[in-house]
């Protein structure tokens, strides 16, 4: 049942305990009159989100929200010192990747993590880092498990607006040209949202003229569609009526019984896709995957996909390949491949494997019959893997150690790694729970301790071309790289840097 009303009760303040997780899971100089480039970017809010002009990265995980860029003529390798550093900027905490539209870059961060609570939405020139505008609003969020208190969701940019979703569930719409507030909603209060493990972490999307947000509220407000011009609630759905009585496949609890105080939201951003000619809004929530009609929020189908562990989350985004949907999670869940039937209301489970790909937060990338991603709940056990779509077979895996990188050793005083041949600072030898994007037939990999590498796209074997690191990008480097107009942007808890990735 689709619910068209919402509550505004005060959010409960109960704090969850016992979980340790690292997660995530992702501009343009304007005058008040739109520049020619921006005018070409048709971001009509009353139609399906259009194709994005090549080179922009205005959403979480890029123009198609898949971690794949169509840019070409990028560098194929770089020296140990890395590609040229164009500019750097000190920023506050957060795990959100920046977003880029033309020469405007927007970064969402918290300047003083332990001080007076506020989040900052900041717009800079993408090619220089020059500040164009800032917008601040209060946030007294405190992570229950000691991680930073900054925002987790990436900004969403259109030719008119910048949308942000803060760690405390505050949803803002600002003008992209000047950073003026258009509207905002306090989702935790408006929809009676139970406290999340690490605050709010699923980036909203635009689909069919609606701003769609994984709110996780009650009653039946797991997913909410807003009018992107006014912030008015258009529909909301997903809660007891969806999940109560669902078959789980668990021996000790074969049928799920709704208790009334469940968390609904996850850290997996929704994605929309056309399957058999029908638009599906695919939402990997705490309980599992639900497909909704984005126009009215009605349910197409659901699929239970969560850990037996109470202290667990889903964080990687679903990956759509034609009529197939790939899901993956850590916490002893693994991965599954579903095939949607032509009626759009049901599916077949093609395979499920508890160990082949256990994605913690970074979304796997699909290319020519294979998924490439990072598997493992903890840093010490994490590997980059290639998994075949047809049967889920692991083709190769690596912890990131590479013979082409050269020999490194730890400094006995600092504990940091250095090159054996030069004694200079070297990248961390392991990727850990890294992230990757695909562009110009190569992977750009960022390890969680700041190792930046170019990796071949090859299902037969792992092959790293080169690696480097920058002192500004330190652990935890959990935000995925962003590529826009042949520039690579990386963020840490303290810095944002811009690298030149153009082939000369």
From TrEMBL:
Pfam families for this protein: PQQ_2 (PF13360)
Gene3D superfamilies: YVTN repeat-like/Quinoprotein amine dehydrogenase
Domain Pyrrolo-quinoline quinone repeat residue range list: 118-397
SUPFAM superfamilies: Quinoprotein alcohol dehydrogenase-like
Domain of life: Bacteria
PANTHER family hit by this protein: CELL SURFACE PROTEIN, OUTER MEMBRANE PROTEIN ASSEMBLY FACTOR BAMB
Annotated protein name in UniProt: Outer membrane protein assembly factor BamB
């Amino acid at each position: 049942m689709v619910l068209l009303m919402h509550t505004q009760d005060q959010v409960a303040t109960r704090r969850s305990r016992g979980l340790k997780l690292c997660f995530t899971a992702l501009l343009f100089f304007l005058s008040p009159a739109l520049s020619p480039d921006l005018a070409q970017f048709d971001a009509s809010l009353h139609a399906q989100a259009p194709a994005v002009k090549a080179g922009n990265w205005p959403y979480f995980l890029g123009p198609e929200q898949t971690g794949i860029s169509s840019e070409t003529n990028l560098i194929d390798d770089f020296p140990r010192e890395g590609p040229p550093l164009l500019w750097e900027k000190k920023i506050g905490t957060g795990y959100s990747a920046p977003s880029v539209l033309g020469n405007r870059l927007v970064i969402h961060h918290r300047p003083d993590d332990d001080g007076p609570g506020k989040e900052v939405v900041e717009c800079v020139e993408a090619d220089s880092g020059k500040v164009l505008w800032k917008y601040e609003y209060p946030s007294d969020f405190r992570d229950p498990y000691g991680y930073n208190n900054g925002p987790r969701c990436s900004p969403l940019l259109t030719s008119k607006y910048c949308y942000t979703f803060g760690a405390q569930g505050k949803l803002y719409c600002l003008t992209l040209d000047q950073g003026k507030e258009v509207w905002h909603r306090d989702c935790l209060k408006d929809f009676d949202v139970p406290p999340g493990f690490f605050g709010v972490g699923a980036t909203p999307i635009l689909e069919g003229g609606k701003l769609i947000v994984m709110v996780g509220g009650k009653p039946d407000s797991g997913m909410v569609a807003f009018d992107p011009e006014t912030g008015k609630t258009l529909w909301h759905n997903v809660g007891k009526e969806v999940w109560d009585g669902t078959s789980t496949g668990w021996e000790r609890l074969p049928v799920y019984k709704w208790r009334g105080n469940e968390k609904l939201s996850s850290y997996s951003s929704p994605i929309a896709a056309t399957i058999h000619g029908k638009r599906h809004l695919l939402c990997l929530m705490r309980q599992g995957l639900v497909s909704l009609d984005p126009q009215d929020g009605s349910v197409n189908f659901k699929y239970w996909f969560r850990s037996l562990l109470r202290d667990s989350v889903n964080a990687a985004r679903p990956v759509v390949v034609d009529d197939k949907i790939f899901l993956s999670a850590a916490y002893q869940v693994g991965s599954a491949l579903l095939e949607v039937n032509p009626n759009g209301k049901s599916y077949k489970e093609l395979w499920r494997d508890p160990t082949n790909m256990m994605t913690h937060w970074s979304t796997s990338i699909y290319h020519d019959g294979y998924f490439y991603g990072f598997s493992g709940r903890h840093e010490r056990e994490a590997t980059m893997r290639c998994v075949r779509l047809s049967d889920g077979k692991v083709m190769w895996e690596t912890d990131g150690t590479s013979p082409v990188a050269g020999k490194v050793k730890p400094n006995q005083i600092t504990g940091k790694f250095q090159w054996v041949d030069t004694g200079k600072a070297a990248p961390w030898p392991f990727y850990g729970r890294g992230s990757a994007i695909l562009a110009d037939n190569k992977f750009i990999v960022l390890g969680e301790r700041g190792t930046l590498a170019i990796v071949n796209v090859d299902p037969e074997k792992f092959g790293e071309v080169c690696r480097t690191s920058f002192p500004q990008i330190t652990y935890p480097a959990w935000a995925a790289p962003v590529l826009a107009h042949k520039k690579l942007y990386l963020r840490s808890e303290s810095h944002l840097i811009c690298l030149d990735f153009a082939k000369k």
